[in-house]
Write a structure and sequence with these properties.
heterodimer, A: about 110 residues, alpha+beta, Ubiquitin-like (UB roll), five-stranded mixed β-sheet, 5 strands, globular, B: about 400 residues, alpha/beta, FAD/NAD(P)-binding domain, five-stranded parallel β-sheet, 26 strands
């Protein structure tokens, strides 16, 4: 299973094995990674699973939908060009080693 | 003597949140979470959505992996039934055994309200509440094209209808009231969704009750309406509301009235017992009313309040209610209230399938329903929480960012 590394705002790293086909958000939630809330359960509808993708990985992720781009304007901590909603990042074998940084808060 | 444990009865969204918030809040005493299903605590919203339409696997429904409960030292008691509560002795009977508690949280949830007409017991007439229910429905929908009838045009009936339609089945929705989702959305939104379903080939039958369900000679079902119309069906899914699980509380003498009655601190009529989620008739101090809400938002937010009360750190429950529903590609999101308004202002357009309706009581914004405009929804919740002044001309102008009003 691909390993995903979640880096908290306080710089604590949690490495989690996430099954292919799951979202980066789901990997965090099931393994109690603090800093991702996902109050809508993964519907690209709440902007509380915001992550900053590590610069080395940003180009390896799939395209954003227009809805995700819109929702990124609603994050609690202002989004940047490295921002994604982790519910919209689907884990593939190519993402083994992915590193995402978590914002200070989500709401 | 060791301190008596906190016991949480009910391992759904609210029960798990109580346990989680207790640990996050620093409680390091003994903690048990008791649920009557054998599966680890899981999310219910996908059961009528992705679980049916996209073949989602069960392990993906779980809130947390099993390691979480070990790590947090939460004793998970699954597949066991709590048959009695004695508030004076402060103990429960769990699968026939007595378990004492120091404090108790009830998050017993609700069950699907049963259809009471003749023929309701036929094989093929079912409900959707648990993962087992969803598994049964999914199994039936994986067969050749079926004739599916949803009795009840609320969220459950409509989401099942939408999922079944997406899978290629022929679908009829029967609603006894004159419009869809009448209890929770305004007539404007009801009418919009009626058109969405019609345009996707789902038959919507309004304003008529079901009289009985018959079994025909070939083994299929016939739904007979009060006006004598008949609708043939292979599968009938009933979604006509829910009844709160109050038996345990009621028998123990706790104050119940269409739910376990709690104040704005999630406190029941017993000082050692709190309650949260679908099972409660609760006070929301922002809205100034008592109501029962079946939603993820209420389960989570009220559970956090209940946990704080257990920790001796009272904070009133005053959250803006919100809810969502996914139906045939339309993402419906509701914030605040859509009853008691005397005027509405529209942002976006129904023709484009992307709009929000802002509900006002005179000049006070009381609620916003959004369809495929999640950014409006997220900002609206903040506007409602802040009691912001929201001018009409900003709402109607899509060039204007609502965030500037915060």
């Amino acid at each position: 299973m691909p390993n995903i590394t979640y880096v908290s705002h306080a710089d604590e790293r949690t490495v989690v094995e996430v099954p292919v086909g799951w979202s980066v958000m789901e990997g965090a939630i099931q393994n109690d990674v603090a800093g991702i809330v996902a109050e809508c359960g993964g519907g690209c509808a709440c902007a509380t699973c915001h992550v900053f993708v590590d610069p080395l990985w940003i180009d390896k992720l799939g395209e954003q939908t227009v809805m995700e781009q819109d929702m990124l304007e609603c994050t609690a901590i202002e989004s940047t060009e490295r921002s994604r909603l982790s519910c919209q990042i689907k884990v593939t074998s190519n993402l083994d080693g992915l590193i995402v940084h978590l914002p200070e808060n989500q709401s | 003597m060791a301190e008596l444990p906190i016991i949480v009865v009910g391992a759904g969204q609210a029960g798990l949140q109580v346990a989680e918030s207790l640990r996050r809040g620093g409680y390091d005493g003994s903690l048990a979470l008791i649920g009557n299903e054998k599966i680890l605590p899981y999310q219910r919203p996908p059961l009528s959505k992705q679980y049916l339409s996209e073949g989602m696997l069960e392990d993906r429904l779980l809130f947390r992996s099993s390691e979480y409960y070990e790590k947090k030292d939460i004793e998970l008691v699954l597949g066991q039934h709590v048959s009695a509560l004695d508030t004076s002795a402060r103990s429960l009977i769990v699968d026939g055994k007595t378990r004492p508690y120091g404090k108790l949280a009830l998050a017993t949830g609700a069950s699907a309200r049963p259809l009471s007409v003749s023929g309701s017991e036929h094989e093929g007439v079912c409900y959707l509440r648990s993962v087992d229910d969803a598994k049964y429905i999914r199994g039936r929908l994986s067969a050749d094209p079926q004739r599916v009838v949803a009795i009840g045009g609320g969220f459950i009936g409509l989401e099942v209808a939408g999922s079944a339609r997406e899978l290629g089945h022929s679908v009829t929705v029967i609603e006894a009231q004159e419009r869809l989702m009448a209890r929770v959305v305004s007539p404007l939104v009801s009418e919009y969704f009626r058109k969405v379903y019609r345009s996707r080939g789902v038959d919507i039958v309004l304003n008529v009750a079901v009289n009985r369900i018959e079994r025909s000679t070939d083994g299929s079902l016939i739904v007979v309406l009060a006006d004598t119309r008949t609708i043939p069906a292979d599968l009938v899914v009933v979604g006509i509301g829910s009844s709160p699980h109050t038996e345990l509380a009621e028998t123990a003498g706790l104050h119940c009235d269409n739910g376990i009655v709690v104040d704005e601190f999630a406190q029941t009529s017993d000082p050692y017992v709190v309650a949260a989620g679908d099972c409660t008739m609760h006070k929301n101090s922002r809205l100034g009313i008592f109501h029962r809400l079946e939603s993820v938002q209420n389960a989570v937010d009220q559970a956090k309040i209940a946990a704080m009360t257990l920790l001796g750190n009272q904070k009133p429950y005053d959250q803006v209610p919100w809810f969502w529903s996914d139906q045939l590609g339309a993402k419906l999101q509701m914030a605040g209230r859509s009853d008691g308004f005397n005027r509405t202002v529209m942002r976006g357009s129904m023709e484009d399938g992307e709009f929000s309706i802002f509900y006002f009581d005179d000049d006070v914004l009381i609620g916003v329903d959004s369809v495929n405009r999640p950014t409006d929804h997220v900002v609206s919740r903040k506007l409602l929480a802040a009691g912001a002044n929201v001018p009409d001309q900003i709402i109607v102008d899509l060039e204007q960012n609502l965030k500037t009003l915060l």
